[in-house]
Amino acid sequence: xxxxxxxxxxxxxxxxxxxxxxxxxxxxxxxxxxxxxxxxxxxxxxxxxxxxxxxxxxxxxxxxxxxxxxxxxxxxxxxxxxxxxxxxxxxxxxxxxxxxxxxxxxxxxxxxxxxxxxxxxxxxxxxxxxxxxxxxxxxxxxxxxxxxxxxxxxxxxxxxxxxxxxxxxxxxxxxxxxxxxxxxxxxxxxxxxxxxxxxxxxxxxxxxxxxxxxxxxxxxxxx
Length: 223
What we know:
alpha+beta, Arc Repressor Mutant, subunit A, three-stranded antiparallel sheet, two-stranded antiparallel sheet
């Protein structure tokens, strides 16, 4: 699913609340309407939009009292959407949550795999394991933030050099080369949506501005 679609869907407060409620347990639309204090018709419209986007899915569950099957809704996606916005950067990244069991996280899987069947002990162990994971996530987020700061400084310096030394067409190429490191002229053309012939002319002009030795490093992948 495209990040723009996700942002459009999540731009509605009621839809966000629906996702939050469904993250705890599946529900049918009457339950959701009551839980959120929203009319049934409005809930159905939001559920349809969420289902069309793929964020939730519907399934039927038999009633215990012989009534017709009820249509329940549950979440259908597991991903992290990261938005980075600063003076010199705007990026959105969607990363699917998958079970990889890397060395660094293996201890948490080990604890989870050992959860007993007895309810009280299981809840206690789950709570402790979740708290440990949240603490490590917080630590990693702090480390990420510490890396975003120098990244922003680097991008700001890059844009200053671009504005001072290159014209508009050249700057677009320069930023793409430095920030995304394309492996060929063809890849650069695909990213910038510029013809390869135009790119070669621009790069030739840029080579004279950065010097022969620097040009060999900057454009080393563009063959």
